[in-house]
């Protein structure tokens, strides 16, 4: 029995070769195209069926890939609700961060250098005697740092520059970074203003920062030294040097009711001084409004005090405001809205809440906990917070100190030229990498999945009007506590109104475009359309093309390895091959371990031995078929019949 089993030809999943397995699959599969390839007569017809089957398989793969990609897409839905809305936080800052009269003692030397630069380069002077006296005072107090980083005047885009202090020309080396190449001077001169920053540890490493506009060059140079000075002043002192709530706020109304400075929360911004946030929610209460319109929002009159502005730090007059959520940090320097003086600025709002799907639909973050950047602002996560925190961390790691305009990391100090003489060169180099997205912050930081947004619509009107200017300014001066003969000027005032245009809350959300049930249904439709195939067919394909094919390959490799090992052992021992080895050759299939006896039809297909043919049954001897009689002679009565 075992010998017969080993010599039986095996078909189906137990076929010994891949070609026999594929032929068996095509004859027995439930898909139509594969069977037609085998049973079709003629090469042309078989070729056509092969082409059609391969085309159907290609279409199935393409459509299924499209379905998979669409599965990770999202549809956007917009829901509008009419309800009572919470009023946002409104942060207001004076464009001028500190009173110039209070800052003169700290900025006197810097202002002298700036005035001298204006006189040297542009012939601007407030009076020769006054400028000369200021320069002499500056020389007496010492200004070594201004000697190291002076303003330079470059001629005809060359690297020959005129020094501000000495007036001498010298050759400047270093890489040139043109900060505002889009600005072109209107004059005939091609002179460019800029300054040079060098590495304190390596004087040959320098960078030239040039500006085609002298206004931008002087302001950038002034801010550079201004941050050095402000970084050395304690926070308590800076809060006293800036504007108080009584200085900034003249009148206040919300939702038709009077309000005062108790409804505002102060926080100190490095670049804008003391700012005040209305409805900050720090006391646990958030105001809301049930009616839209300008009369039911926030109305404030601000005292700007233009006469006490720093002439070199800011060149515009007014205030900056930003509308934000109570848990968000107000980035006034990035997205703040400026309001004019002598004008009534009305800001209408539309409130929108947005919600995005996280992975795998988008690359957003829920809370920022998965972002490897420390939040330095102690507010809810946002992309801006992540970018600023990432840059500040890189600043501390690379330069050894923190940039003045951003919060301090734990254990760090703000940069200043006394403790960190190399920080300016390091900061500009680092900022250049940040802008070019070479620092890695843009790759690490992600958008927040949920956020609130107030869309603003701004309109401006003249305020106060010409006919009401006299009495309004007189009354406001009285409210301010000033004398009547020193009434306020309208250029010192700004009227601001912030309100909801309507109470429609818009909720924008993303939903999965496809669910798992829809995806499986689409797969089934594609398989049935192109191949008349079902889930059973898919399981059949997986079984034949992966499991059975792999088992055949592994079995063949095992047989080869076993034969090689037996041959090796036989060669070493010198024994002749055993009969059992010869019997296993050919159609030997060790998988046939069942005990069923072969049938008659399968037994007839057994191969005959070539060397020793088995004896066959001899042909019958037809002479034995003759009848033998018991009589020796024929009877007379039969003779006549036989002859007849």
Automatic annotation (TrEMBL):
Biased segments, Pro residues type: 610-621
The keyword Disulfide bond belongs to this UniProt entry's keyword annotation: yes
UniProt key word Cell membrane: yes
Region annotated Disordered, chain positions: 566-590, 604-623
Basic and acidic residues: compositionally biased ranges: 566-575
Keywords annotated in UniProt: Cell membrane, Disulfide bond, Ion channel, Ion transport, Membrane, Sodium, Sodium channel, Sodium transport, Transmembrane, Transmembrane helix, Transport
Chain coiled-coil ranges: none
InterPro entries in alphabetical order: ENaC, ENaC_chordates, ENaC_CS
GO cellular component: apical plasma membrane; sodium channel complex
Subcellular location: Apical cell membrane
Residues spanning the membrane: 44-62
Catalytic activity, as annotated: Na(+)(in) = Na(+)(out)
GO molecular function: ligand-gated sodium channel activity
Record-linked PROSITE patterns: ASC
Primary subcellular site in the record, as a coarse category: membrane
Mode of membrane association: Multi-pass membrane protein
Family: Belongs to the amiloride-sensitive sodium channel (TC 1.A.6) family. SCNN1G subfamily.
Protein's UniProt name: SCNNG protein
Protein's organism: Stercorarius parasiticus (Parasitic jaeger)
């Amino acid at each position: 029995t075992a010998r017969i089993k080993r010599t039986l030809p095996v078909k189906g999943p137990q076929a010994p070769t891949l070609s026999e397995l594929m032929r068996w699959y095509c004859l027995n599969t439930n898909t139509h195209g594969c069977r037609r390839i085998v049973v079709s007569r003629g090469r042309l017809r078989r070729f056509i069926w092969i082409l059609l089957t391969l085309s159907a398989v290609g279409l199935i793969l393409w459509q299924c890939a499209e379905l998979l990609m669409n599965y990770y897409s999202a549809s956007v839905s917009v829901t509008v609700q009419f309800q009572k809305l919470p009023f946002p936080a409104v942060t207001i800052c004076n464009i001028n961060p500190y009173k110039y009269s209070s800052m003169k003692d700290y900025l006197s030397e810097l202002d002298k250098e700036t005035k001298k630069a204006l006189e040297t380069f542009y012939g601007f002077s407030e009076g020769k005697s006054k400028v000369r006296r200021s320069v002499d005072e500056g020389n007496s107090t010492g200004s070594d740092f201004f000697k190291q980083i002076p303003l330079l005047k470059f001629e005809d885009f060359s690297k020959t520059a005129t020094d501000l202090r000495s007036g001498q020309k010298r050759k400047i080396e270093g890489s040139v970074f043109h900060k505002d190449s889009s600005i072109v001077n209107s004059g005939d001169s091609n002179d460019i203003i800029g300054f040079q920053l060098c590495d304190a540890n390596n004087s040959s490493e320098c960078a030239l920062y040039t500006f085609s506009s002298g206004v931008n060059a002087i302001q950038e140079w002034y801010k550079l030294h201004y941050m050095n000075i402000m970084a050395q002043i304690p926070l308590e002192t800076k809060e006293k040097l800036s504007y108080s709530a009584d200085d900034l706020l003249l009148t206040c109304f919300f939702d038709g009711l009077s309000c005062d400075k108790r409804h505002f929360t102060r926080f100190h911004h490095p670049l804008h001084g003391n700012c005040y946030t209305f409805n900050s929610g720090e006391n646990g209460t958030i105001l809301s409004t049930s009616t839209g319109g300008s009369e039911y929002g926030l109305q404030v009159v601000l005292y700007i005090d233009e006469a006490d502005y720093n002439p070199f730090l800011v060149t515009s007059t007014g205030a900056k405001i930003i509308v934000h959520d109570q848990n968000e940090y107000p980035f006034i320097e990035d997205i703040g809205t400026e309001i004019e003086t002598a004008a009534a600025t009305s800001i209408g709002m539309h409130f929108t809440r947005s919600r995005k799907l996280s992975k795998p639909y988008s690359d957003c973050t829920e809370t920022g906990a998965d972002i490897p950047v420390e939040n330095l602002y102690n507010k809810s996560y946002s992309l801006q917070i992540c970018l600023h925190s990432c840059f500040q961390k890189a600043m501390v790691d690379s330069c050894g100190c923190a940039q003045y305009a951003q919060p301090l990391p734990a254990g760090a100090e703000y940069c200043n030229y006394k403790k960190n003489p190399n920080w300016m060169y390091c900061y500009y180099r680092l900022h250049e990498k940040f802008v070019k997205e070479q620092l890695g912050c843009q790759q690490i930081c992600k958008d927040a999945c949920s956020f609130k947004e107030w869309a603003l619509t701004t309109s401006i009107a003249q305020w106060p009007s010409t006919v009401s200017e006299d009495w309004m300014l007189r009354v406001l001066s009285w409210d301010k506590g000033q004398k009547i003969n020193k009434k306020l000027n309208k250029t010192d005032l700004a009227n601001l109104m912030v309100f909801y245009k309507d109470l429609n809350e818009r909720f924008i959300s993303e939903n999965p475009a496809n669910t798992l049930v829809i995806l499986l249904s689409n797969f089934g439709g594609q398989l049935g359309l192109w191949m008349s195939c079902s889930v059973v067919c898919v399981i059949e394909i997986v079984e034949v093309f992966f499991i059975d094919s792999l088992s055949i390959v592994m079995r063949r490799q095992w047989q080869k390895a076993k034969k090689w090992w037996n041959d090796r052992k036989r060669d070493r021992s010198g024994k002749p091959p055993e009969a059992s080895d010869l019997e296993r050759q050919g159609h030997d299939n060790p998988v046939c371990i069942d005990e069923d006896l072969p049938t008659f039809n399968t037994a007839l297909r057994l191969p005959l031995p070539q060397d020793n043919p088995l004896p066959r049954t001899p042909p019958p001897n037809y002479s034995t078929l003759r009848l033998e009689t018991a009589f020796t002679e024929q009877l007379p009565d039969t003779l006549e019949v036989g002859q007849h």
